[in-house]
Amino acid sequence: MPMLHELQSDFRRFIAGDLSPGLLEMVDGADFDPTSLLSIYRNNTLITLTEALSATFPVVRRLVDHRFFAYAAHAFIRDNFPSAPCLVEYGAAFPAFLADFPPAAGIAYLPDVARLEWGINRVVHASPQDAILLASIAEAHADPASLRLRTDPATRFLASSYPIHQIWEANQPHVDPGEMRIDKGGEHLQIRYADGLLIRNLTPAAWSFRARVADGATLGAAVEAALEIDSAFALAPALAALFEEKLIIGLSN
Amino acid sequence: MKVRTAAGPCADHQPAPFVGVGLRSPHIDEILARRPDVAWFEVHPENFMHAPAALASLERVRANYPLSLHGVALSLGSAEPLDLEHLARLKALADRLDPFLVSEHMAWSVNNGAHLNDLLPLPCTEEALDVMAAHVDQVQDALGRSILVENPSGYLRFRHSTMGEATFLAELVRRTGCGLLCDVNNIHVSSHNIGVDPVEYLDTLPAAAVGEIHLAGHAANLVGNRTILIDDHASCVTDQVWALYGQALNRFGHQPTLIEWDADLPTLDVLLGEAAKARALATTVGGDHHANAA
Questions:
Q1: pTM of the full predicted structure?
Q2: Residue of B167, B164, B224, B235 whose CA lies nearest to B195
Q3: Which of A3, A116, B183, B277 is the most exposed place for a label (fewest CB within 10 A)?
Q4: How far apart are CA B28 and CA A103, in angstroms?
């Protein structure tokens, strides 16, 4: 008698596109072809996971049209089943997949738009955290340059050489994109959710400072990187702004 | 079998609410504004585990209605360990929302760590029963309460099954003390697709364990030159399923009954109309308590 784990492994492989003779032998199709019955489950899995990706990447779907999106999603799903039970956590690898998906190569900005949508998904679903005050830095009694700040998980930083936020805005459901012209350069985005979604385009130096802080760099290293981009970058107001915007939820030495 | 406070829904002996509808996010604002005459709502807990804003809305609904948590992702039938983080999140949600029912499925969705996000079929074997029973025990221990397990919709049979599905579920109840969620539409779908006898199926389920009934619509798809019924929760309950619901009420009494609708979501009024139909039907059949308690 086949063992349950073996059956389930064969079933998973079938959904990924690989039918084993062993699985076929296990199925009593009655009047139906067993493969077509198994396919009901495969189709259902592909449909629901494609819908989950559509919900997370609606602008990508709109940019490529729903048929191409389903084609790309199916190819992605077969090699990237969810590793967690909640579907809002599914799709982290989809932007990188699109970057390497030859049929999508004609739309160079598509992977970065997908990264923006993944970032939006993450901040919208982050648990709210309490911010700390600027005074915490003084209270730490340490060299400020050696401090590392913890940023609110409802904030993400994303840079692109394409105007992805403009593209995203032009493709919201209530907007007619008309004839979209990509005639502007890159963007340095802060994606935030706090009583609503707020996406801001920062200066390259400010973005670099904040992105490095969020990445766990020391304040010293984050400032150094910002100064390399803009020698006039000023730490004090940049640091005060982080706290005023309630972006910092903790610090460590 | 472990002794628990109640195999069915209400450990505190409050009368269970009767007809509820599935709560879907597009309807929440309207429900909060209208406070429709619905006895209770049911949600998939997975939709609220990483969604603080959605959870806040759900808590506003919960303030006015009893709630049931109907899980779809525990994968009780997987021949590998349960996801303990997911189980902990379910426990936290149950503690926060105080649902009157918690349910899951006789199905599996996880293999080698891959979450396939579908209710995949189990063979009715001793091994599968051992797996299900161990996982139901583990979930009930973690939650500190009994859960209901739902019968699946069937599209195929496994040749190596050694017992019928209703017998499998009856044995699961005997071993774990869990309750059952009897999905009448699933029985109808399985009856058409794989030749289950619906009346025999209802008669085999231990009546005293049934703590909830599901009603939903299904689609008829052509496979080759024959139709197969698909449990898609995207339309009204059919006449045949209403008739089978009447038989279920006769056997199980007026158990909490849910109108499920997941795809092609209609207006809230359509769901309320289906709920009214269930209430009307119940005035002619069934009783307030378990009949033929087995």
A1: 0.91
A2: B164
A3: A3
A4: 40
